[in-house]
Amino acid sequence: MSAYLNGIDKTENSSVSPSNTIQPGLHADVDENYLLKRGIWLYFFLLIFEGALRKWFLPGLSNVLLVVRDPIAVWLVYSAWKKNLFPSTIYLSGMVIVGMVSIYLALFVGHGNLIVAIYGARILILHFPLIFVIGRVFSHEDVLKVGKMMLWMSIPMVILIGLQFHSPQSAWVNRGIGGDVNGAGFSGTKDYFRPPGTFAFTVGTSLFFGFLAPFIFYFWVSTYKINRWLLLAASVALIAAIPFSISRTLLFEVVITFVFTIIGLLRRPEYIGKILISIFLGLIVLAFFSQAKFFKAATGAFAERFTSANADEGGLVKGVLGDRFFGGLLGALEKSSKQPFFGKGIGMGTNVGSQLLTGKRLFLIDELEWGRLIGELGPLFGIIVIILRVGLALKLTADCYRNMIKDDILPLLLLSFGFVPLIQGQWASPTVLGFSIMIGGLIVASFRNTEMAS
């Protein structure tokens, strides 16, 4: 079991013993854990369908639904705290302390708006702790259940983004937040827009299918754990989503997951053949669909976007990894000395914060995550949060490696998607925040009951 679970109630493993079934109070604990699991699932489903509610079904409540997962987070954190489920770790305590302090700093030396400060601090105080709640409540088997659900959802999701891709922005499927008839698509190429799927913005599409990819590769290795027809259909959905999304980021995420899969299977070379066969079949499917008129436009748009963006940014690796990742990180650190020591106030760098402070949605601080953190919190506390995020990601990496040595590659595959969002995902965005928290929690949960792994 992961070191992250250290400090949890020492009696946690007693429930697995048959003799404990007659202990007083056990049924209450089981019921509470059951409710916590249901709460995590609700958080997950709201992450996937929050945008659909805000765009199509309850557009008049779009502003309220922006924080629809927050009450679930409050209940989960409170319930976990009451049950003494949180581990004693610097990552959790450090983040919560900075979050509490940041509210006072925002009020007395920053922007001075309490609502903005609370909105910004909730990221650190409410959502970040959910990584440890999910890691404690979910098991390895629960992680696989999430994966199976992702496979089921990927099929209608790719159909939806296909319809959005081919429909005008004025179509109902492309309605924006609050029922905006101008559409929710984001410019992809001259003739086509990037589809948002069920999400409020197009980033949700790449995150959804990037989140799906580790499960696809894992189940191809462990095909006995999944219906093969479902796996094949979901694999086709993943392949089709790359051109439909017009997202180089999604392509990069899938390639990284594939590389991690090969690394994870180096100790089990007999499984590499399965992956290579699945990729070969996938390429055949892609070649088949590429001849269809419905799909041909998507591959053409993606190729055009890929070529033009690479020409502007110097290639996929330099543009996505170099400029967006390392460039943003180093740039934020270089500019840190120019920021107020205690920052401009937490929440100011979010869209909601800028709307409340100026009446417009602007990047008041920085579009990239590390720059936002240092601008909001100042060099001292901003860098502390960055160190905590990097430290957690590196600790998870070490634990994933240890599990890989035990022939369990699921944590490693989840890390292939989760590493970057945990380090520098734009948590000011509720969608990015939600996927970061879910993948972080699932990585921790996948360390539990590793004897169940293939």
What this model shows, in words?
With 454 residues, this protein is mainly alpha-helical. It has one domain (3-8, 29-452). Helices cover 68% and strands 1% of the residues. It is built from 17 helices and two strands. Helix 6 packs parallel to helix 17 and helix 9 (228-245) packs across helix 12.
Key terms:
single chain, 454 residues, mainly alpha, two-stranded antiparallel sheet, 68% helix, disordered N terminus, disordered C terminus
Structural topology:
Blueprint: H1 26-57, H2 62-65, H3 70-82, H4 90-108, H5 114-127, H6 130-137, H7 140-166, E1 186-187, E2 193-194, H8 203-221, H9 228-245, H10 248-264, H11 272-290, H12 293-313, H13 316-335, H14 351-358, H15 369-405, H16 410-424, H17 430-446
Antiparallel strand pairs: 1-2
Helix pairs in contact: 1-3, 4-5, 4-15, 5-14, 6-17, 7-8, 7-9, 7-17, 8-9, 8-10, 8-16, 8-17, 9-11, 9-12, 10-16, 12-13, 13-15, 15-16, 16-17
Tell me what portion of residues adopts beta-strand conformation.
under 5%
Describe the main β-sheet briefly: 2 strands, antiparallel
Morphology: globular
Gyration radius over CA: 22 Å
Q: What is the total number of structural domains?
A: 1
Number of strands: 2
Number of helices: 17
Percentage of residues assigned to helices: 55-70%
Main-sheet strand order equals: 1-2
- Output the helix-strand order: HHHHHHHEEHHHHHHHHHH
